[in-house]
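As promised in the previous annual report, we have extended the structural survey to additional targets. Below is the entry for DUF4012 domain-containing protein.
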Amino acid sequence: MTESARPRRRRGRSRRRRQLRRALLAALVVGSLLLLTGGWVGFRGWQARAHLLNAAGLARELSAQVVGGDTARAQRTLAALQEQSGSARAATGDPGWWVGRHTPYAGDNLAAVRQISVAIDDLARQAFPPLLRADLTSLVPAGGRLDVGRLRTLSAELARVNATVQGARDSLATVPTEGLVGQVRQALGDLRGEIDRLAGLTAAADEASRLLPGLLGADGPRTYLVVSQNPAELRATGGMIGAYAVIHAADGRVRMGRQGTSSTLGRFQPPLKVPAEVRSLWADLPGMYPADVNLTPHFPTAAALYREMFRRRTGTTVDGVLAVDPVVLSYLLRATGPVMVPGGVPLAAEKVVQTVLSDSYQRMDNEEQDAFFAASAAAVFDALVTKNVDPKALLSSFDRAVTERRILFWSARHEEQRKIGDSRLAGALPEKDTVPTVGVFLNDGSGAKLGYYLRPAATLAVGDCRPDGRRELRLRVTLRSSAPKSGLSESVLGLGLAGDPYTVRTLVSVHSPAGGAVLAARLDGVETAVGSGTERRRQVSTANVEVGPGGSRTLEVTVLTATTGVGTAELWLTPTATPWTTQVVSAPSCDQ
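The corresponding structure token record, generated without further manual editing, is:
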């Protein structure tokens, strides 16, 4: 080795030693920072946990006090809640916590705790105070009249409250649960459940405060048809329309007018004009018989047809159509308490569905049943407008009914209908899906009233991402019959079009997501024939499913979405006398 090579080698070793020392020093500095940050985050985490536990307890107390009407105690509880939620937010908002959120393993948990703290604090400061100030009695009638002036004053504040609650709900919905420790996952799940319930109530209150003044005649008298859907004889929107009642509204005061049954409107020949897509699926039936207008699940179409039929037979033009079913009555009776129907029949929340959809059919003919249902609806309506009803209980009842699509409303006034059109109240599948939406709609095909005995279930599983950006969805619909093998009246058994009068024949229509397709259908594992068509950018396939007493049939359908990266899906279902059992199985999102 030359003399000149040795210094170069020594200089190389020296440079490597300096680099190693710098690396070790950097590791020590970073390690020390991580240890210090970890200790600080641990301390702050202990503080945040204590504050969040206190806040959770106070929030439960506040809820009970608000429901109980104890405003004075509620104000003190709110002040304590704000102190605890603010402390939790501060404990999870400093630079040390920020660094911790970006570390492996612990980061997801720290980020989730931060979002939980922010959500609770936002609710405590922006949503709960105006809710305590708000007089929710404006949302229920007093002395047979709703104060529409006070309702309009309340509307702006309820809109702000609802925006805060929905924002907190949306924020928490984005928190991933994979990798969270048990305590954090449980806390997140509990909070999501509570905020979901709160969001339902605030959305219902917001929508009611915006729409009700105009609908109840604040700007001039209104007239509506209230129609009763009978899920014992299923139609796509819920049930055959049996009875109707005319409702008059002026300056917040509501009164019931004439009542009648669909059978008195008769048959329309030639049929009313029906949209071409609906006609290709159901021929002229929706334009010919009032009981068949809702073979289509699109409630605005069904309501407009029924309104025109009513106008032609009675000469009365109404401003809109409201649909309800006996399950709605059961929810409302929880708020009003039991009522008595003329003739001495008591109606209570626990038994009204059985009374209206089963017991009455064993002792009444068809016209008497429709009249009884109309009288039942009138009795509940009278209780709503005359009794001192708890507004929170009433809001909760309405929210559940609207969520399950058991209350549907269509306005003949275009601007009003446009405002309603993006809500569940409208009874219309969205024109464009933000999440792939599959509709499963049931129409009775037996000419009987055996729908009361149907026990439906549906599972929708999201499949893998395809190269073309679409996804396959696997739908499984099970229909089980709890009908007896004998002992039902002729009124219930009806026409017996399935052959065996105790067999339930149901036409199951599957509507694909918007822009999607229905690929294949199997009944009890065997490929089955289906009728097909389209309605509002959705492919429709209809299968005939017959279920004997105590039996069960399963329809499996493969559905294709439009291009989507979303890993979840949504089911829209015909409301039935016994609620569906449902499950949606999600999958990872696609990279787009």
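Confidence is low (pLDDT under 50) at residues 20-46. The first helix runs from residue 5 to 68. These points will be discussed at the next consortium meeting with the crystallography subgroup.
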